[in-house]
Amino acid sequence: MNDQLLNALAHAVISGEPEQAALLARQALDAGAEPLAVVENTLSPAMDEVGRRYEEGDYFIPDLVLAGEAMKAAMAVLGPALAERRQARAALGTVVIGTVAGDIHEIGKSLVATMLEAAGFVVHDLGVDVPAETFVAKAREVDADVVGLSALLTTTMRNQQVVIEALKEAGLRDRLKVIIGGAPASPEWAARIGADAYAEHASEAVEVLRALLGGA
Amino acid sequence: MIRPTLQFLAPATVERVIDEAIALLQDPGVQVHAERALRLLGDHGAQVDREARVARIPALLVQRALDSAPKSFLLYDAAGRSAVHYGNNDVHFDPGSAAIEIIDYGATTSRAPLTADTVRYVKLADSLDAIDAISTALVCADVPQAAADLYRLFLVLLYGRKPIITGAFAVDTWHVMKDMLVAVRGSEAALADRPLAVFDVCPSPPLLWSEITCENLMDCARYRIPAELVSMPLTGATGPATLLGAVVQHAAENLSGIVIHQLSEPGAPIIWGGSPAAFDMRTGTTPMGAVETMMIDCAYAQVGKQLGLPTHAYLCMSDAKLVDAQCGLESGIGATLGALAGINMISGPGMLDFESCFSLEKLVIDAEIIGMAKRLIDGIAERETPIALDLIRQVGHAGKFLSTPHTRRWFRQELYIPSQVIDRDFRRGWEAKGSKDIVQRAHERAEALIAAYEPKDLPADVVRELEAITLRALQRAGMDQLPARPFDSTEEKTDE
After folding, report:
1. Is residue B265 a part of any domain in this protein?
2. Could you give the ipTM of this predicted complex?
C-alpha cells in the first residue's frame, strides 16, 4: 500500500480539506487499501492529532469543524466499502444529541456532534429546540448508548432535567448514558439532575464518553 | 481602508509651535556645554556667547538641518536583516530603558538588577514577537557604574537578535559601545550601512545640552549611528505648565539637537523623540502613566511628523510599584494612544515606577497590549467584494459560518489571537487551570519562554572580541574580570 497516499489522506483531514479527503480515500481504495485499516490507522490518528493541536492552542474552532467535515467526507467514501466487506468500523457507540426545547443555540452542540462523529461514534444530531419526546423517540429508534443534551440559557437548562425525566418514564434511562453541556451547565448541575456526565468542551466530551462507554 | 489615527493639534497650531520653537533658538538661544559644538555652530552662522556658552541659532540653520535630516531609515537586526522602519506611521515597540531596579515575581520590594537578571531579560525580550527592538533595559549593579552602560550593551549583543535601543552615560563609554557594535558588524562602514543600535541623547530642560549628551550626539552623527533625541520638559517644573507650552519647549530642544547633529554630518539618521512628563503637583514626581504625559507625547510626535522626521516616545509604562490594575490601565492606554499617533518607536514595555523598575511579568503582559494595539491600527479591512452579501445568502438561515472556507480564510487575519496570558476561558476552564490571575499566567509564560530560548549563533571570534572590549573597560573602571554569566552554549563557543 502506498504510504504517501495515506499520509496525504491524513494531511487532508488534519488540514480540514473535505474534497481532498474524499478524493484520497477513493484513491486509497482503488489502490487496494483495506478500508478498516484506513479508518483505524490513518483517519483516527489524524483526528487525534487535530484534537491534540486544539488542546495545545495551535488549532482553533474553525480548524476543528473543517477537520471533522474532512473526516466525514472520507467516511462517506469508505463506509460503503466497509459494508461490502461486511466489516464495520468498531463504533464507539451511538449518540443522540440536540439542544433542548426553547433553546436555539447550535454551535456548541454541533461541535460536540462533529468531534464525536470524527472520533468514531455514530451520531444522530436532532438540531435545536428539540422537545423531550423527540429525544426519547430517537433514542428508542436507534437504540442509543448516549443522549447528549445542550443548553446555553439558564432558563432552558431545566429542560435538560425534563428530558432525563422523560427517558425515565419511557423506561430507557437505565439503558443509556446522559451527558450534558452548555455555558450554564456544570458537573454539579449534572449530578443534581441525574445526568451521568458533563463536558466543558467538544474534545472533553469525546474523552468523557470514551471513558464512560469503555468502562460499561 | 482607513488607518485609524489620532491627532491632538490643528495644522495651524503645529505651525505656531514650530514658529515659536525656532524663535526660541534665536532668543534666548540654547546652552551648549561642549566646546566642539559651540565652534561648529559659530562656524555655520550661529551667534555664540563663549562665556555664557549660549548659541543663538538662526532660522536658516534650522531649515537647512531639517532639509538634510533623513525622513526615514532602516534599523537592522544582529544578522543584518532590516527589522525596523523608522518613518511614515509605522509603529514598533521596545522595552523601556535603564531601570536601576527590578521587581521579582511575588515580591513587593524591588532590588538592584544583576548580570543574571539582564540575561534573563534579553532572552525574554528576544522571544516575544510583539517586541521589535531590545533596549538596554537594566543597569547591572554587579559592575562598576563607570562601565554599567557598555556592560548592558555587551549582554544584549551576546544574547539578543533584534535591533537595539541604547545610550551612553559618558563621552568615552560611547566609543567603547561603538567598538562593540563594529565588532558585531565587521567594520565602521558596515555599521553605518546597516545600523544595529540607536543611541538616546537627552538634552536637559530647559534648552541645555550637557557635554556628555552633546558629544554623544556629534559622535552618533560622525559614525552615522542613529541618534534618538529625548527632550524631557516637566510641565510647570522644568517647562511650561500648559501641555502645548511643553510641546513648544520640546520642539525647541529637539530642533537645536538636529542642527548640531546635521552640522556634524548632514544626512545622518536622527529621531524626533522625547520623555516629557506631566509633573505631579502633589508628590513632585514625573508620572509616565499620566494621561497628560501621553497627550504631550502624541502632540510632539505630530509636530515631528509635520517636520518630516522619524518619531519616538516613552509610552506603555506605568508608575505603579507592582504589576497590578494601575499598571495595566496606564500601559494599555499609553500603548494604544502611541500606536494611534503613529509613533515609530514606542519605548516602555516592562517598565514600572517612573521608568526606574523593570518587571519580566509586565513585559509579557505588555506584549499582549502591543498585540492588541497593533491590531487596532491595522483597522477594519474590506476583505471581499461584495463584503458579505454572497456569503450570507449562501449560508442562509442555517447560520453555519464555522464550516465555511470564508471563516477559515479570514479569522487568523481578522483576529489578534492572544497567548494564554489573556484569559478568555469559560469560568470553569479558568478554575480547572488553577484560578490564576494575569500576573501568575505572565510569570509562567516568562519562565517558559526563557527556558525555551535558543542560544544565539554568534561567531566565537566576535564573542572573544566583545569580551576583550568589555573586560578592558571594566578594568579601567576597577574590576579585573567579567562577571560570571549563566552557562549556555554561547559560553561553550568562547572555549573553542
Report:
1. yes
2. 0.73
